[in-house]
Amino acid sequence: MTQREQHWEKVYQSRDHREVGWYQESPEISLRLLDQIGVLTEQSVIEVGCGASALVDQLIERGFSKITLVDVSQKALSIVRERLGARGDVPDYRVDDITRLALGQSFDVWHDRAVFHFLIDAKDRKKYVAVLKEHLAPKGHSIIGTFSLHGPESCSGLPVERYDEEKIQSVLGDELVVLDSLTDMHATPGGGKQEYNYFIIGWRS
């Protein structure tokens, strides 16, 4: 098990997932951006670094069935499956590190609310982008959320990289392009404020 896997498994084993800083009771921004790109219920969605996010609950409620959840923490995924109850068999659960993911299939939507900003090593960012391009359908969209340039410098005891449009575009390279972005102030369960930037990304035409 890598250090990254050990860290996140420990987080979900030792803490109530509803009390971690990134917890959202309702993933309103993600749902708004999915509506903006016009994703259809018959299309496929992969949520990378999903943790115990409630986005999958909302997707199933809306009628989505082609859902893949990826996280390095087995505990996080088991929390989701248990919470979903009778609907727990709808998603495809994958315990994996996003920098080495190889599913052999493409997805119409790639959703990452808060994984990318933990990749502080340029080599890991390069691997992530390669994996993204390998798994994004020809007309697909990616939604990536990160801390903004005014956001925290660390999270869960780990340093993070912060982004605006220009900075994330420089990492994406020439084939992918930021189509739109949204800034949101996230209220943590502890009452703190964290500024996020969300980016809608697609293939350059």
Q: Can you lay out the helices and strands and say which pair or pack?
A:
Layout: H1 3-14, H2 28-37, E1 45-48, H3 55-62, E2 67-71, H4 74-84, E3 92-95, E4 107-112, H5 122-135, E5 136-147, E6 154-155, E7 158-159, H6 165-172, E8 176-187, E9 193-203
Parallel strand pairs: 1-2, 1-4, 2-3, 4-5
Antiparallel strand pairs: 5-9, 6-7, 8-9
In words, what does this structure look like?
The chain has 205 residues and is of the alpha/beta class. The chain has one domain (3-17, 26-203): Rossmann fold (3-Layer(aba) Sandwich). The chain has six helices and nine strands; from the N terminus they run ααβαβαββαβββαββ. The strands form two sheets. A seven-stranded mixed sheet has the order 3-2-1-4-5-9-8. A two-stranded antiparallel sheet has the order 6-7. α3 links the parallel β1 (45-48) and β2. The longest helix has 14 residues, at 122-135. The radius of gyration is 16 Å and the shape is globular. The N and C termini lie far apart (40 Å). The mean pLDDT is 91.
Question: Any key phrases for this structure?
Answer:
alpha/beta, 6 helices, 205 residues, two-stranded antiparallel sheet, 31% helix, 28% strand, Rossmann fold, globular
